[in-house]
Specification:
The chain is an alpha+beta fold. It is built from 17 helices and 20 strands. It has a 20-stranded antiparallel sheet, sandwiched between helices. Strand 16 and strand 17 form a beta hairpin.
C-alpha cells in the first residue's frame, strides 16, 4: 500500500494549507487587534518528537482560531470543511475546545520501512498541543470509531505507556495512526512506526531535534516572538529529492515569521561548519545608485561590489538552493532577468568576466515592465571608477565586434552613447522597377554618465525616463521606503520586487508560481511587494530576511 499517498490526502495537505492560510491571514488580524495575537517566546515543543535526522519540520506557534478575521474571507471555513468533512468530524465541536497554541508538521524519515524495493515512503508526523487532554482523547477515540464504521480495521497497542490507535486502511480510505501523549500533545502519523519512533525520541533525548547542536544554534536567535517557524536539514532534503549536490556547503536552515506594522518579515539563518566571507562590506544605508532607478521599476537589485560575487558564499548558497529545488543547477534568476540573459547571448559576453569583474563600487539593476510588450526594459547603474571606465571601453569594443555602431546622441542636453544596428526593410512599391528599400536604425543599448554614475539602459524610452523623472526615483517611493525600513542595517543591499507590477512577468517565467498563488490565495491577493536582503555578522551562518509588504498595511 502506498502510505505516502494516504496521509497526504487526509492530514499533510490540510496541515500545510492551514499554515499557508494562517500565515496569509496574520496581517488581517494584526490590523484589527495586534495585542490579541500571542506569539511564542520559545521553540516548537513538538521538536522533542522529531528525529535530528528529520528532513523538515514546520510549526504554527499560535492557535489558528486567533485568525478569525479570515472567516470574513471564508478561507478558514472552507479549509476546515475540506479537511474534516469526509471524516464526519466537526471542527468547532470536536477540535476547537482542546486545540492549543502549536501545530507542527514534520517529515520524520525518508523511508518508513527502509526497503528500497517498494519505493520511498516518507514518514509524516502531525503534532498538536492540547489544553484539555481528556477532550483530545475523546476526539481521537471518536475519529477512529468513525473510521471503523467506515470499514477500517482498528489496531490498539500500548507502547511505553502510550496508547496507540491505528487502522488497517481499506483501499479507498486513508491509513492513519494517532495517540495522545502525556498532558500536552496529540499526535497523528501515516504509520504506527512513526508514532513509536516519536515516543522513542522523547525518551532518548539525544535522538531528538532539540539535541542537535545546529538546531540549538539556529533557534537561539530566531525563535523569540515568532508566529511560525520551519527547520530544514539541507543535506537530507537534497537526498529526499534524489539529488547529489556538486558542493555541500550549508547544513541546515531555519525560517521564522514575525509580524511588522508594515507587513510580514520572514527571517532565515543558514548554517555552515566553514568560515563565511561576505561578498562585500555591509552597507549602512541604501546605495546612491538607486536615485537613477524610476519608481515604475518592477524589480530592483542594489548593493556594492560584484567583482567577487561568483566565488562568494552567497553564490554557493544560491547554487545549492537552486539544485535542491529544481533538481539541477538551473538558475531562476535567469528566468526572471531574461532580457539581460538575451543580451548576454546576443553579444557573446560573460557577465561575471566582462561586467561584474569591474564593478567594485555601488550598483543598481532594474527591470521596468511594459504593458505593451512581453519583454521588460532594463537599467544598470554603476558607481564610476577607473576600472569602470575601462569596463565601458571593453563593452564598446565588444559591441563593435558584433557589428554594432557607437553613435553619440543628445537628449535634453545630456550626451549619450548608443549601440546601434542598421537594418534594411523592403516595402511594396508601385514603381515598375520593383521593391524599394529603407534603412532602419535599431538601438541595442545605451550608456551615459550622470553625476558619479555610469548608466546603461535597453532603449531610448528608458534612458529618457531616467533623465526626465529625476525626482520620481524608486528611492523616494513610499512603498519602497517602508519595505527597506523593515530590513535591519547594516546589510548587503536589497532585492525589491513590486508584485503588482511584476506578477504577469513572473507567472510567464515561473509557471509553478500560479499553483503557489492558488494555495496562498488570500496572501497573494493582498501582496504588494517583497524585499530580500542579507545581513548579520556571524561567520558561521548567513542571515537574511524577506519582507512582505501587504495592502492596507
Amino acid at each position: 500500500m502506498n502510505r505516502q499517498r494516504s496521509f497526504i490526502g487526509f492530514i499533510v495537505a490540510g496541515a500545510i494549507a492551514l499554515l499557508v492560510i494562517a500565515i496569509a491571514g496574520f496581517y488581517w488580524f494584526f490590523a484589527k487587534s495586534p495585542a490579541s495575537l500571542i506569539a511564542s517566546s520559545s521553540g516548537p515543543g513538538a521538536a522533542i518528537f522529531v528525529s535530528k535526522l528529520s528532513p523538515a519540520m514546520v510549526s504554527l506557534l499560535t492557535n489558528p482560531d486567533r485568525l478569525q478575521a479570515l472567516e470574513r474571507e471564508e478561507e478558514l471555513s472552507k479549509l476546515k470543511t475540506s479537511l474534516f468533512g469526509k471524516s464526519g468530524i466537526d471542527y468547532k465541536q470536536d477540535i476547537q475546545p482542546w486545540l492549543g497554541d502549536e501545530i507542527t508538521l514534520a517529515v520524520t524519515t525518508l523511508d518508513i520501512d527502509r526497503d528500497p524495493e517498494n519505493g520511498q515512503q516518507p514518514g509524516y508526523l502531525l503534532a498538536l498541543t492540547t489544553k484539555q487532554p481528556e477532550k483530545s482523547r475523546e476526539f481521537v477515540e471518536l475519529l477512529f470509531s468513525k473510521r471503523a464504521l467506515a470499514g477500517a480495521n482498528l489496531a490498539v497497542e500500548q507502547y511505553k505507556g502510550v496508547k496507540l490507535i491505528s487502522d488497517n486502511s481499506q483501499p479507498e480510505q486513508d491509513l492513519l495512526a494517532g495517540a495522545v501523549v502525556g498532558e500536552s500533545f496529540v499526535l497523528f502519523a501515516n504509520d504506527p512506526k512513526v508514532l513509536r519512533d516519536a515516543i522513542n525520541n522523547v525518551q532518548a533525548p539525544d535522538l531528538n531535534l532539540t539535541s542537535s547542536p545546529e538546531y540549538q544554534k539556529a533557534t537561539k536567535e530566531q525563535l523569540k516572538g515568532k508566529l511560525a517557524v520551519a527547520f530544514l536539514n539541507l543535506p537530507i532534503v537534497a537526498k529526499w529529492q534524489g539529488l547529489e549536490l556538486p558542493e555541500q556547503l550549508y547544513n541546515s536552515q531555519i525560517i521564522s515569521l514575525v509580524l511588522n506594522p508594515q507587513g510580514l518579515l520572514a527571517e532565515t539563518s543558514i548554517l555552515t561548519s566553514s568560515e563565511i566571507v561576505p561578498p562585500s562590506a555591509p552597507l549602512s544605508k541604501p546605495v546612491g545608485a538607486l536615485q537613477y532607478v524610476p519608481a515604475s521599476a518592477g524589480l530592483a537589485i542594489s548593493g556594492s561590489n560584484l567583482s567577487n560575487l561568483a566565488d562568494s558564499d552567497l553564490a554557493k548558497l544560491w547554487k545549492q538552493a537552486t539544485a535542491t529545488i529544481y533538481g539541477s543547477g538551473e538558475d531562476i534568476v535567469s528566468r526572471l532577468a531574461k532580457p539581460l540573459v538575451d543580451v548576454q547571448k546576443r553579444w557573446g559576453i560573460n557577465f561575471p568576466e566582462d561586467i561584474f569583474s569591474w564593478v567594485q563600487g555601488e550598483y543598481a539593476l532594474a527591470l521596468l515592465p511594459d504593458k505593451e510588450q512581453i519583454t521588460p526594459h532594463w537599467i544598470f547603474v554603476v558607481e564610476k571608477s577607473e576600472d569602470v571606465e575601462k569596463g565601458v571601453a571593453r563593452l564598446d569594443a565588444i559591441a563593435s565586434s558584433n557589428g554594432l555602431s557607437i553613435n553619440p546622441l543628445t537628449i535634453d542636453k545630456q550626451k549619450i552613447s548608443a549601440w546601434t544596428e542598421l537594418t534594411t526593410a523592403t516595402k511594396k512599391s508601385d514603381v515598375k522597377e520593383g521593391a524599394s528599400f529603407s534603412i532602419e536604425t535599431k538601438v541595442r543599448g545605451l550608456h551615459t554618465t550622470l553625476g558619479n554614475y555610469e548608466i546603461f539602459a535597453s532603449d531610448l524610452e528608458t534612458i529618457n525616463e531616467i533623465l526626465t523623472t529625476k525626482d520620481n526615483s524608486i528611492i523616494n517611493n513610499p512603498n519602497f521606503k517602508d519595505s527597506i525600513a523593515a530590513i535591519p542595517l547594516p546589510n548587503q543591499g536589497y532585492v525589491y520586487l513590486d508584485w503588482t507590477k511584476s506578477q504577469n512577468l513572473l507567472e510567464r517565467q515561473v509557471p509553478i508560481l500560479k499553483l503557489v498563488e492558488v494555495l496562498g490565495k488570500p496572501f497573494f491577493n493582498n501582496l504588494r511587494s517583497l524585499t530580500v536582503s542579507s545581513y548579520g555578522t556571524d561567520t558561521r551562518s548567513l542571515k537574511g530576511g524577506v519582507f512582505f509588504k501587504l495592502h492596507n498595511s
